[in-house]
From TrEMBL:
Source organism (scientific name): Agromyces aureus
Name of protein: Prephenate dehydrogenase
Cited Gene3D superfamilies: 6-phosphogluconate dehydrogenase C-terminal like domain, NAD(P)-binding Rossmann-like Domain
PROSITE patterns for this protein: ACT, PDH_ADH
BP terms from Gene Ontology: tyrosine biosynthetic process
Prephenate/arogenate dehydrogenase domain ranges (all copies): 8-289
PANTHER family: PREPHENATE DEHYDROGENASE, PREPHENATE DEHYDROGENASE [NADP(+)]
Pathway(s) per entry: Amino-acid biosynthesis; L-tyrosine biosynthesis; (4-hydroxyphenyl)pyruvate from prephenate (NAD(+) route): step 1/1
NCBIfam families: PRK06545.2-3, PRK06545.2-4
Domain ACT, residue spans: 293-360
Length: 360
């Protein structure tokens, strides 16, 4: 275990998924963590899981991390600044400008505040979903402003680096426009697509494959939380949704009259534009041309997926990405494995020799 940069103690206010994960990650580094939550049950569960200890009246934290819903974040940050006059205070809400402006209006001491946003999460919430490695390798935005010194803000940099995340500095405005594009609008699009399934015939839903599952995955997110997020970041979300609506209208018009001059070309250009956009996604989440893939048929029996992972590892191949597809009632699933192109042929031969059926 590498030595922590933070000296602590660190006070975490709100021990849902993010708060509990921060606590678990810091405790794994040996940092003292103090927990506070409006729910005694959440607090007890997070403490029992090892995320930290309940707060005591004489605590003097080095850093306070506010992990509460966006609509109360500014109020809690202001309260923590007042209650802990020697501490630096940050928050992890997914909107930044509205919170910053609210704190300015409250007259809060922004020389000890800097908002942040870790780009990490899970569909599940609550302290039991916390993971010490949740932030490893993930971007963590620092929403910079000019009222805090670099020296004082360095403790927040230490927090981010201790949890294994990658620090990204943006202004609050830049952050909110960025997450509108890569998080908030995708949530809306995913949700509206998933709503089409409500009245769909049962036979149609039974045909669902990985495509519809990919598009609708985040539609399972908490509606109450998303009402808050979208409400606090409405301007950039509306701007992008209006552009998306224009794109849809053009696509519909072309599809509605395929015999019109240029209609098929316009559809092809829109589809190709999607290809180009996906290629810009970083790392393994986009269509990274450095990787090749093969599809392995996996029997629907306990332990088969673990065996596949072991056999890939025994072949000396690093698994770069994985997609699973399984239709209801089917006795076999499909595992699409992404690897470096130079090992694809060797891995294919190795898995076939071990009895795996290669579908593509």
């Amino acid at each position: 275990m590498s030595e922590a940069r933070l000296t602590g103690p660190v006070r975490i206010v709100g021990v849902g998924l993010l708060g509990a994960s921060i606590g678990l990650g810091l405790r794994a580094k040996g940092v003292e963590v103090i927990l506070a939550d409006a729910s005694p049950t959440h607090l007890a569960i997070a403490a029992d899981y090892g995320a930290g200890r309940p707060a005591a009246p004489d605590d003097v934290p080095q850093l306070v991390v506010v992990c509460v819903p966006p609509d109360v974040t500014a109020a809690v940050v202001a309260s923590e600044l007042a209650a802990n006059p020697t501490a630096i205070v940050t928050d992890v809400a997914s909107v930044k400008l509205a919170i910053h402006d609210d704190l300015v209006a409250r007259g809060a001491d922004l020389s000890r505040y800097l908002g942040t946003h870790p780009m990490a999460g899970r569909e599940l919430g609550g302290p039991m979903s916390g993971r010490a490695d949740l932030f490893v390798g993930r971007p963590w935005v620092v929403a910079a402003h000019d009222r805090i010194s670099y020296r004082d803000a360095s403790v927040i940099d230490d927090l981010i680096l201790d949890l294994g995340a990658t620090l990204v500095e943006l202004t609050p405005e830049q952050h909110d426009r960025a997450v509108a594009l890569v998080s908030h609008v995708p949530q809306v699009v995913s949700t509206l697509m998933a709503r089409r399934l409500i009245d769909a015939p049962h036979a149609s839903v039974n045909l669902a494959g990985q495509g519809i599952r990919d598009v609708t995955r985040v539609a399972a997110s908490d509606p109450e939380l998303w009402v808050q997020i979208l409400g606090q970041n409405s301007a950039p979300v509306i701007e992008i949704l209006r552009g998306y609506r224009d794109d849809l209208d053009r696509f519909i018009d072309a599809l509605d009259d395929l015999e019109a001059p240029g209609a098929r070309r316009r559809i092809a250009e829109e589809l190709f534009g999607g290809n180009t956009g996906v290629e810009r996604l970083p790392g393994k989440h986009g269509v990274d041309r450095r990787y090749a893939s093969l599809i392995v048929m996996v029997d629907d029996r306990p332990g088969q997926l673990a065996k596949l992972f072991n056999d890939v590892g025994d072949a000396g191949v690093n698994l770069e990405d994985l997609r699973l597809e399984h239709s209801p009632g089917a006795q076999v699933g499909l595992a699409e494995i992404s690897v470096l192109p130079e090992v694809l042929e060797r891995l294919t031969d190795e898995l076939a020799a071990r009895g795996w059926r290669i579908a593509g």
